[in-house]
Design a protein that fits this description.
single chain, alpha/beta, TIM Barrel, nine-stranded parallel sheet, 13 helices
Length: 292
């Protein structure tokens, strides 16, 4: 591990707490509003930031993030614009890790080498490509690692011990554990199942583990933060964006402040739990023992 992602997780470990990873779709509901949100996420409690690359066929995403992608595409957002947006953010923030999340098709059309060069120059730290399995590592994963960009894998409740080694083999940065089976934003979390899965992942990888999908409240975030290295929230923030659009789909004046208030509330839930190794292991064991 190296770079901003590694430094941030080292800082979190030294502080004895889990981190908050926030997700928003780039360009939702428009480029200017998104740029304002992005610029203020770190001071509102985001330790790492995931930025969705809008795509017309987001098969792993639920209705909320699908709608966000459609709004961004309608507003004219392109993959090139995503990288420009990151570059502008980097002019004011050199430390907060940025991870792009999306699908392979737009990257393939952009051109692999061209995309990786532009992403690195813009200040992208990692990418999550949900529809590119490890059998195709040569297409993007290995070139990304060679370019100095972390390639972050998703592990799911259906990733068994036979599949996990191939998923983790070239993973860097952190492991994104999907806490529920299915698409984003459609189910709630089961902390007992998460604790068991996190313990299993720790036995197979030294990487930090971030848990996402289904986490919507400060209380849920606090519970997950007791067993994971980071908590990922996305759909609840995207829903907050959608709730503050006018009848024409334009951002209302209170959109930015409302989304950031939601981030601060969830961040407080995460930050109130000390999460050094001993307390984390004790929390995991308590949860697992309570399940019988």
């Amino acid at each position: 591990m190296s770079g901003r992602i590694a430094r941030r997780f080292a800082e979190l470990k030294a502080a004895g707490r889990a981190g908050l990873v926030t997700y928003l779709t780039c360009g939702d509901p428009d480029a200017e509003t998104f740029a304002r949100l992005l610029g203020e996420l770190p001071t509102s409690g985001a330790d790492l930031i995931e930025i969705g690359m809008p795509f017309s066929d987001p098969m792993a995403d639920g209705p909320s993030i699908q709608a966000a992608g459609q709004r961004a595409l309608k507003a004219g957002m392109t993959l090139k614009d995503v990288l420009v947006t990151v570059g502008r953010f980097r002019a004011h923030d050199a430390e907060t890790p940025i991870v792009l999340m999306g699908y392979y098709n737009p990257i393939f059309i952009y051109g692999i080498e061209h995309f990786l060069a532009d992403a690195k120059a813009a200040g992208v730290d990692g990418i999550i490509v949900v529809d590119l399995p490890p059998e195709h590592d040569a297409e993007l994963c290995l070139p990304a690692l060679a370019a100095g960009i972390n390639f972050i894998r998703l592990a799911t409740p259906t990733s068994d011990n036979k599949r996990l080694p191939s998923l983790l083999n070239q993973s860097t940065g952190f492991i994104y554990y999907v806490s529920v089976a299915g698409v984003t934003g459609t189910k709630t979390v089961d902390i007992g199942s998460i604790a068991g899965a996190v313990m299993s992942l720790r036995q197979q990888s030294h990487l930090p583990i971030a848990v996402g999908f289904g986490i919507r409240t400060p209380e849920q975030a606090a519970a997950v933060s007791r067993v994971a290295d980071a908590v990922v929230v996305g759909s609840v923030l995207v829903d907050e964006v959608a709730a503050h659009l006018d009848t024409n789909g334009a951002a209302r004046p209170d959109l930015v402040s409302s989304v950031l208030a939601r981030v601060r509330a969830i961040s407080e839930g995460v930050r109130k739990n000390l999460n050094d190794v001993s307390t984390r292991n004790a929390a995991v064991n308590k949860i697992l023992n309570s399940k019988g």
